[in-house]
Amino acid sequence: MTEVKNQIVLDWVKEMAELTKPDEVVWIDGSKEQLEAIKNVSLATGEMIELNQEKLPGCLYYRTNPKDVARDEKRTVICTRRKEDAGPTNNWVDPKEMYEKMGKLFDGAMKGRTMYAIPFSMGVPGTEFAKLGIELTDSIYVVLSMAIMTRVGAEVIERLNAGEDFTRCLHSKATINEQEKYIAHFPEDNTIWSINSAYGGNVLLGKKCLALRIGSYLGKQEGWMAEHMLILKIENKEGEAKYVCGAFPSACGKTNLAMLTPPDYFKEKGYKISTVGDDISWLRIGEDGRLYAVNPENGFFGVAPGTNEKSNPNALRTTHKGTIFTNVARNLDDNTVWWEKLDKNPPENGEDWLGRPWNGKTSEEKGAHPNSRFTAPAENCPTIADEFFTGEGVPISAIIFGGRRAKSEPLVYQAKSWDHGVFIGSAMASETTAAANGQVGVVRHDPMAMLPFCGYNMAEYFQHWIDMGKKMTNPPQIFHVNWFRTDENDEFMWPGFGDNLRVILWMLNRCEGSVGAVETPLGYEPKAEDLDVHGLDISPETLEKLLRVDAEAWKSEINGIQEFYDKFEWLPKEITDCFERLKKEINEI
Ligand code: GTP
Ligand code: SPV
Ligand code: MN
To answer: Is the separation of the CB atoms in 372 and 338 below 8 Å?
Structure first.
């Protein structure tokens, strides 16, 4: 293995080892042999279970503590010297206080265990976008997952040896004591400490912690953006490629949109879809004044329930090898996995996510936890785009904001300008999901789908969006979508999934200026005849309802936005101006 020679790295690892007191420190080089040997240790201890190696080669099963199955926003903190730098939407603790408190918890936490040191890169090492990190952990689940989700290997060590900076990530599952669980970020020290959890989003520190919370902070300092966005590539029959980014809150459809299967009619017309990213985008302005995006991850940590041959065949295929399944149900007859809506054939001789005997044919209870997930290599994805591998940015034509809204939000509208789009993003709201602990289905404001992920004051973050817009000569068009509107029987009105391509194609036409629109207080809406619904079983009345702006609903929506904005001491004038105009125009309807 390439030896780590950077003294700053060695000193930090030594210091953390002296604190946590593991029996030994093992450096991870990402080689197949080493990962195989470490996996075998976890199979022997029962931490991981090997699945049917004929049907699911290289796949593992993993279960977390029943109280540790999602991100924990209450226990996620931003530690900046000044409270106002964390802002009104983050939990803040003074860094000195937090280091002291967590230092006591980390003291001896790895006694009798091995500390694994994982050097990793977010983004392709050596590209303009890439950032390095090292995660120290006592969890083999974390080692095996980071080897899927990030780029681990000799090249990272070489770059560290050359003196590149890195994010210092420390994790211990400790005793999984939920009273003493903390996921703490120290943006001013480029440091993340996480203790007493073993669930993905809290412990795979390259993902939300580095790529979004620390990333957004670095982006503000360095003039780029870290966003909770998928990246989708759309090619027409001439082979012309366009790229769009989409920010939807957790469990609101990013992975599904990123891997969408076009309806047959569009396939016949020659449209092709590829996946660049499904969760996180890092964006920079190119020399041509456009916005360019990369996916800094190397795998997908996707929601299992709802994934099936019809909704997302590409995701399903992605999980057929080298994948870790967490908190899904098991089929004990053939040692495979199952989750709600996978198919109509749940196991009779199964085990639920809690490890209890479970008969899917007769049981009233769910087999998989609603936030059960798969961790799968991106290279497995049948639609993975070539650009994913180069790590060079792709030029973004459109940014799509969206949420899960049973009422009020129309299917789609286009912002009237970049600043208006930033306002739309800042005002967006969505029903909460099982991706985070807490109540599910409650509408909450989640600007740019970043409420839980912005590593600094969100007013400053809005200002950063406005400033970035001013620097671009050719910024993306901004849109808002809602795939989740329901009718009086609580049924989804829009078919969603692959049919969302119909809406995206309208957006691309708008970007080219090749189609008209109706101006409303919210933004530009499609004329019904401009949405290509060929082959879709949807009545003109339903379509009309999906597109209509409901003035009454928007009056209460405005109160909600006001209440959210009231948390802030200040907001960019560009945003408050747009809000004032919306209030006025809604009242005039
Ligand atoms: P995170 O990984 O938590 O960030 O979630 P995500 O935004 O990637 O969401 P994902 O694509 O995994 O979808 C979450 C859930 O929403 C799944 O159960 C999907 O089946 C469902 N879903 C996704 N897209 C659509 C859609 O267009 N319509 C409907 N009705 N459901 C959808
Ligand atoms: C999300 O919650 O938005 C996820 C899963 O993508 S986690 O990694 O847990 O954050
Ligand atoms: Mn996510």
So the answer is: no
User: CA distances (Å), 274 to each of 259, 291, 392, in order?
Assistant: 7, 19, 16
- Environment of ion ligand 3 (residues, CB < 5 A): 250, 279
Distance CA 251, CA 372 (A): 11
Q: Using one digit for the tens of pLDDT, what is the confidence trace for 451-487?
A: 999 999 999 999 999 999 999 999 999 999 999 999 9
Structural domains of the chain in order of their starting residue, each with its CATH number:
7-30+73-222 (3.40.449.10), 227-295+391-587 (3.90.228.20), 301-377 (2.170.8.10)
* DSSP H/E element including 294: strand 291-294
Around ligand 2, the residues with Cβ closer than 6 Å are 71, 200-201, 207-208, 250, 279, 301, 435
Catalogue the E-assigned strands of 43-113.
Answer: 48-50, 60-62, 76-78, 91-92
Q: For residue 59, indicate whether it is catalytic.
A: no
8 Å CB contact between 36 and 42: no
Beta bridge partners of 159: none
Q: What is the pLDDT of residues 359-400, one digit of tens each?
A: 999 999 999 999 999 999 999 999 999 999 999 999 999 999
Ligand 2 pocket mutation pick from 122, 301, 327 by most atoms within 8 angstroms of CB = 301
